[in-house]
Amino acid sequence: MSKTEQNLADAFAGESQANRKYLAFAQQAEKEGYKQVAKLFRAAADAETVHAHAHLRTMNGVGKTVDNLKTAIAGETHEFKKMYPEMTEAAKAEANKTAERSFNFANEVEKIHAHLYQNLLDTLGKTKENYSYYVCPVCGNTVEKEPPGTCPICGAKGSMFKKVD
Ligand SMILES: [Fe+2]
Ligand SMILES: [Fe+2]
Question: Whole-prediction pTM value?
Answer without folding.
Answer: 0.93
